[in-house]
Amino acid sequence: MSAHRQARIDWMKQEARKRLLLLDGSWGVMIQGYKLGEDDFRGARFGNHPSELKGNNDLLTLTKPEIIQNIGRMYLEAGVDFIETNTFNSNFTSQEDYGLGHLVGELNEAGARLARDLCDEYSTAERPRLVAGVLGPANRTATISPDVNDPAFRNITFDQLRETYRDGARGLIKGGSDVLMIETVFDTLNAKAAIYAIEEVYEELGVRLPVWISGTITDLSGRTLTGQTPTAFWHSVRHANPFAIGLNCALGAKELRPYIAELSGACETLVSAHPNAGLPNEFGGYDETPEQMAEMIREFATSGLVNIVGGCCGTKPEHIAAFGKAIKGVTPRAIPQKPKYMRLSGLEPFTLTPDLNFVNVGERTNITGTRAMSGSAAIRLRKVIMACFESSRPSSMLMSMTEAPASTC
Length: 409
Description:
Shape: globular
Number of domains: 2
Number of strands: 10
Number of helices: 15
CATH class of the largest domain: Alpha Beta
Radius of gyration: 24 Å
CATH superfamily of the largest domain: Homocysteine-binding-like domain
CATH topology of the largest domain: TIM Barrel
Helix content: 40-55%
Structural class: alpha/beta
Distance between the termini: 33 Å
């Protein structure tokens, strides 16, 4: 790792102890403001491309870099510490919808390099500006079947996700990112593929950057799309040792607050929040003003819930500037020291504490309800069960039969 990048990372970690850090806002809403047409997305390079390209915002890094630069400058002028790379959809499945799956590495590296140049332009010796290299959620889920008539079907595998995230992470690092952000996580298994891929690239390149993970609570049920609560989500990804964990998108600040509060109490690392500008209106737009959102963001900060704040859908540089003013001088959330317990999760979290007695992890075996447990197999299992009852230590034997590693989403 270069000395300059390591110095920026060290500064970031030290600064996070002193004050709240500021992330940028939505890039999509800013791009929409330019009212671009098909020719703008194509540029000269993709003029003869057979598929329609309008709406592929990540491609603008290559075909209209001046627009992405202008948006980045507006956020830097608003006072952010981090700007994100324009790579939210720079993964194979999202790009292959446009026939551009082969550009994943190039899009990520170019997106990071553009952001790096902007941050260097605005950095000072006292305050460097940081690049958050974004790995978006992809447009397919490894956990849920897209076919209601075939629950076992998947249209993407863990290894396919791992491969495209590996290409993305490699490009983001080579382009100059300071941190890698696994963002807008609706499926924890997708996020785990990204974590695995990142670790592979770190080993390959001999570089290790801080990892930032941000999940999405999809509605007022308080769960991700694949059903996890915020604490269960944290338990599922804490092995990645992220420098920050947070929530973004789907909800406005008011609606997001209880879930940020839960996450803040559950985790022993920095907490981030970048909510939408309220809930979508009937036209799909967002109505909360910078002043309205800043009031809620300040309450997050003064309540000791967060260490990093920013905006998601519907937020613009004026929102982010208002956030910066709102958090100025507020003491950042103190990171709690948690006892070292086994912390597991399915849809709900589970913590194995000393006050718990017998814990049965796994599923009971129905020896009559499955063909695999018929005939000689069922007879052998019955003999084991009877041996348990005849043993002087039945409880320990029963535990050894029924305990199994808990699965995590």
